[in-house]
Amino acid sequence: xxxxxxxxxxxxxxxxxxxxxxxxxxxxxxxxxxxxxxxxxxxxxxxxxxxxxxxxxxxxxxxxxxxxxxxxxxxxxxxxxxxxxxxxxxxxxxxxxxxxxxxxxxxxxxxxxxxxxxxxxxxxxxxxxxxxxxxxxxxxxxxxxxxxxxxxxxxxxxxxxxxxxxxxxxxxxxxxxxxxxxxxxxxxxxxxxxxxxxxxxxxxxxxxxxxxxxxxxxxxxxxxxxxxxxxxxxxxxxxxxxxxxxxxxxxxxxxxxxxxxxxxxxxxxxxxxxxxxxxxxxxxxxxxxxxxxxxxxxxxxxxxxxxxxxxxxxxxxxxxxxxxxxxxxxxxxxxxxxxxxxxxxxxxxxxxxxxxxxxxxxxxxxxxxxxxxxxxxxxxxxxxxxxxxxxxxxxxxxxxxxxxxxxxxxxxxxxxxxxxxxxxxxxxxxxxxxxxxxxxxxxxxxxxxxxxxxxxxxxxxxxxxxxxxxxxxxxxxxxxxxxxxxxxxxxxxxxxxxxxxxxxxxxxxxxxxxxxxxxxxxxxxxxxxxxxxxxxxxxxxxxx
Length: 544
Ligand code: FSO
Ligand code: SF4
Prior knowledge:
Elements: H1 29-54, H2 61-73, H3 82-101, H4 111-114, H5 122-126, H6 137-162, H7 168-180, H8 188-217, E1 223-226, E2 234-238, H9 242-252, E3 258-261, E4 280-283, H10 291-298, E5 302-304, H11 314-317, E6 320-323, E7 332-334, H12 345-352, E8 364-367, H13 371-376, H14 378-387, E9 392-395, H15 407-415, E10 420-424, E11 439-440, E12 443-444, E13 446-448, H16 455-468, E14 479-484, H17 488-499, E15 505-508, H18 517-527, H19 535-543
Parallel strand pairs: 2-3, 2-5, 3-4, 5-6, 6-7, 9-10, 9-14, 10-13, 14-15
Antiparallel strand pairs: 1-8, 11-12
Helix pairs in contact: 1-2, 1-3, 1-7, 2-3, 2-6, 2-7, 6-7, 6-8, 6-17, 7-8, 8-17, 15-19
This protein binds iron/sulfur/oxygen hybrid cluster and iron/sulfur cluster.
Iron/sulfur/oxygen hybrid cluster binds at residues 77, 263-264, 288, 307-308, 399, 426-427, 451-452, 486-487, 489-490.
């Protein structure tokens, strides 16, 4: 059977419809097929674990980790390695087989829970279980919306897990939801309810990760991050995994090798615990999509801890290392040992032989405005709002991307009146954080809370302001939401915001292709979700 690719999970999907030949991200059809199969078998395993729990039997945390990392691997720009993904499918099937033996009741389990590769081969099965296997457009749309939200939730769980934090209730929900996506008896209304429930667990998942990060590394604080380079050779670390960064910083002590952050690792500088490392040199480059040029110029090795990785140019492929959920064929992958530690000596040895990074720019980024830092200056913020010095906050969190249409966000930031403050998180910030937009009475006009998961901080800040101003509804606050999305972590952030009651979110640069017209209508009618138009019109609409 022809193995036709279909993927529409990210904002850059071909023609705003779906990638069918090869991914705009570089994902090949055979990799897309293995990812479809991995999702299918992970749903099957989740149906089994959900039945086990219903029978009162515990599910080992190792199985929970397996499920979360499987989902994480299929997120946009995480893993392009077909062999690595096939190995995960095999492992998942083996674990499922073992767990099936422990079930008292195996009646009426979905087909995915019983499938194993002795029936038909991986490629043949993958061709039957992709996104288009669900024929009804609205059911498919809701199933995929939930699946993508769960992928984002899984990524955040994985980060909390590596720091020793877990919440069995979140894993139980995640798995029961995955299992329910196999159930053909669920109606559009059932799936709409499950979408909203996913948002509730998204809030819990981000709260768990926030707790894990802040209890382990301290509360982010106002920090100036250097953008220039030093004279030593360096290692560039990208992605979102703070534990990997900590291990790398430890292992590079006394080696003469500096460590620079890239992309979504920038906010690591805001955490007190990382400030003690004198070789933690600064941030290099911009958002993920500029990496082909910037990794070339870095000269030293690059460690990708999570997405977004772009398939590399041959010129620096040997310097690109992956770990965790990421994978690129031809690049060395650093596996965790049984105790979770990683040996980065191969990267450090390579760095010693490389030239120091070529400087791209000079200057500083100011950030660290997560919840506690903002609460510490809450009086100042409240006074500025009361005096009229701050008229409006604009949440511009989310992702950056390649599309030219995203220049809108830089232009929008520049066009905002001087009495507005941007609240941001995620790699979207690179569109305007270096523009020197000034401050209002000492409060910077761009307040960066951190990574995309730190959008949770922005929600806490909104709830705090609601309390201080004695408002009933978070939507009465002078806050507009103009969010840029790209991949599936942004989906869980969006669902979490909807759960918290936030309305009238503008989502751009385009609405997700996976929203069918009917599902989009439900989101518009119930939550006022809209997209963007021109900078002028949107400033009028959002700021007044
Ligand atoms: Fe960006 Fe990529 Fe953080 Fe995403 S680096 S696009 S939403 O992976 O996760 O913001
Ligand atoms: Fe296309 Fe995005 Fe899927 Fe890549 S992740 S194949 S760009 S829809």
